[in-house]
Write a structure and sequence with these properties.
The complex is a heterotrimer. By secondary structure, chain B is mainly alpha-helical. Helices cover 77% and strands 0% of the residues of chain B. Chain B has 14 helices and no strands. The longest helix of chain B has 38 residues, at 211-248. The chains are: A mainly alpha, B mainly alpha, C alpha/beta.
Chain lengths: 299, 305, 334
Amino acid sequence: MLSKSRTHEWIIYWRRIEEVLRIIFKDSLGATGFIFLGVFIVIAIFAPHIAPFDPFEVLYDHHGAIIRFHPPSRDFWFGTTQFGHDVFSQVIHGSRVAIAVGFLSALCIVLIGTNIGLISGYYGGWIDGFLMRTTDVFYGIPFLPFAIVLISLSKPSIGMVVLVISLLMWRTTARVIRSQVLTLRERKFVHAARSSGASDLKIIYLHIGPNILSMTFLYMAFGISWGVLGEASLSFIGLGDPYLVSWGRMLNEVFISGRMMRAWWWTLPPGACISLLVVGCFMIGRAFEEVANPRLKRE
Amino acid sequence: MLFCLFRIMPGDPTVLMLHGDLRVEDRQYFLARWGLNQPMYKQYVIYVKNFLMGDYGGSFYYNKPVIDVLGEKIVNSVVLMGTSIVIAIFLGGLLGALFGWRRSGWMEKIGITGALVLRSMPIYWMGILILSAFSFWLGWFPGRGMHSLTFSAKSFLANYFSLDFLKHLVLPLLCAIFSYLSDPLMIMRSSILEVYGEDFIEMAKAKGLKEWEVMIKHGMRNAILPLITYTSLLVGFAFGGQLLLEIVFSWPGIGREMVLAVSHQDYPVCQASFFLTAMVVIVMNLVIDILYVYLDPRIAYGKRY
Amino acid sequence: MVLLEVKDVRVYYKTRKGIRQAVDGVSFTVEQGESLGLAGESGCGKTTIAKAIIRLLAPNSYISSGDILYKGHSLTGLTESMVREIRWKEISMIPQSAMNAMDPVYRVGAQIIEAIRRHEPIRKEEGIRRAYDLFEMVGLPPERLQDYPHQLSGGMRQRSAIAMALALKPSLVIADEPTTALDVITQHQILEKINELRREFGTSMIFITHDISVIANTCDKIAIMYAGKIMEYGSLEKVMRRPFHPYTIGLENAFLSIDRVADNLISIPGSPPDLINPPKGCLFRYRCPFGEPLCLENPDLIEVEERHFSACHFPNRVEEFREKGIREEVWQIE
């Protein structure tokens, strides 16, 4: 008996998720953004099959010389880099890092931020004060410099990147979720749940939780964009994972080579991909903006 | 905010502690310099004292006191960053207000789309594109650094107020402004939308004021408050952007120095630049908080019946 | 002398669902020194027509037909910049809630001076002096000019709004529910003050309200509006003492006033019709207990007494209306 009602209660989450997806798709901007994201996810998953070469494979011509700085051609759709790597393959494989870091960091940001926001907003008092003070600390820290210090202490790796991003970016999520929880806390259904004897934990996750789901999704979308941009920035400085190809790293290489202008085929794709992916996330975010703030709707 | 200061501090001694792969001689140097062979809390106090007094030890790489290395660079960074933030907020705010005030279909859509796109572009990519276009291709502006090689400043001020400096300033400034524009624009836009429905806007029109007068004097003046709050966020975020810009444009600032320090394994410089960066952020936040109180009389003055 | 003449004005709104006929053929006049009360429920169009006079309508609304004449000149034909000249100097406004009508980030005195200096190029000291005089006139201590709106009480804010409205000695003041947001005592004080100032300066006024008892204290003439049309129109005494229209009769019994003892308040059940594609005929017939088949035809304003008009087909049944109208059960139809 008990387990049946438990699962029944958790179904509410699924229904809310459906609602959220409906919101996204109703808005044309949101739907487009979702498609962008979807395309990149697909590319990331099937990268080894789509890319004609291994991203670190050095390409030789029939004389045995390395093909450097070759403009786009039939063999190399996006041309080659200074090191004789195929740009197209690199771009394709770069999507893996972008998507992976994006999703992982977004997940962490949302998990940390939402939970802190929920707990802080629900309990109030000194717990709230303490947690908010902590978030304020992170507020003052500029991302890149701190990230540099942290990564310089250990070895650069993709794990570090995700860690650093997650560590610093949860702040806004926590704040926003907290203020939502504060308003929800006073609503009747919470009072009802409390008087029917539900435990605090249950109230937080079963009753209040589903109602902030749209906010959570919004920040998940933003989180992906922060993750992608953060990873790219760190790789551009040279603090990214040295064993993986990423779009930021490609930009780093092209910049160092000094031929950014002439090797436009190398410069443009990685930056464009970052922009497209991030734009997609923002478009999804915009779909929620109109829900959260109906005054922005056109008459 | 003052608490922030003291909480960032613990980060730095621990950084020192964790330097496992320092060369043995360096370690000894450090131990002596910072008195690490003394009990922990004493170390901490010494550390804090030194930092506050501006003594950051010596740079490994340059073999000079860190202060000498970083001193001027901070000013360079602040000059670029400060100017770009001020212009971005101003311009973004104005455009956002215009978009929000007159909801004229297509222009608004283009503006918002544009803002969205600019926001998504990595700042260094934009920098590279701008460099390629205006420096390499068109040759209008120099591509590196803050001054030409042949330039020598006659005085401290001349450093920053010469034509040469301005020519070098244009491209990074442009890039920064484009990158930072979109958030103020969107914030001001939604803020103005909210303000527009207020009665006092109608009242101002009823008094016979011109449309733009109403928009600026009453609309923007009220809508600007969320923007001020955002500015403190922007300062924190802009330091990262600043760093990247300094790399792309070889601007001799503290961000670039920090990255170079990492590659040279010059830890004192690295730490010190981080510390100084955080300090500047905190100071700027303080200034912004004061500004906010000044601008919103509801906070400054209580009720008096 | 006729100061303002509204001639068969129609104001329509464009909405997603269609065109909303907010004001549908309204005519009235305001003489010099006269005070006209515009009464009716929310949404009846009284605020819309008032705003149309100084062209403060929302962007999606427009004057579809009719004309508004001020001192003999057509207002609807003016350009925007000409209208701006007239605003405040000739026709000013007292808002409903002065709290929201004053900019919270500027001092009250500054806002008054702003209105003055927009139309008269005077020096700052002169402006301050005039603001002082205005505050004294409405009974406020002049030091309060330095305060911000949120620092004043509701009554004080309303008084400062009155001061601001009279700053340029306009010929016509439009008061949009100026006392609705106040408690009864303050309401009384404000109304007294308005009357006093009106008499002193000979200002004409259009007094918009949904509370008939308030009109009884301040107006010379009254126009009762419903669903965008005028139902009854005439001097205060005639309309209040001898109402002809069922709606007027219903309204008068719905409000408590200090000088009238009422055993029971009657509220007219139901609500006004949707003004997007409104039905034909008398729009009040859905809530009127005295309806007949003829009501399916739109009633014009008939002169039932000298200078007293009613938009009902049955002025002859007025005795019956008045007698039955004070009984609550009569209004509870279906």
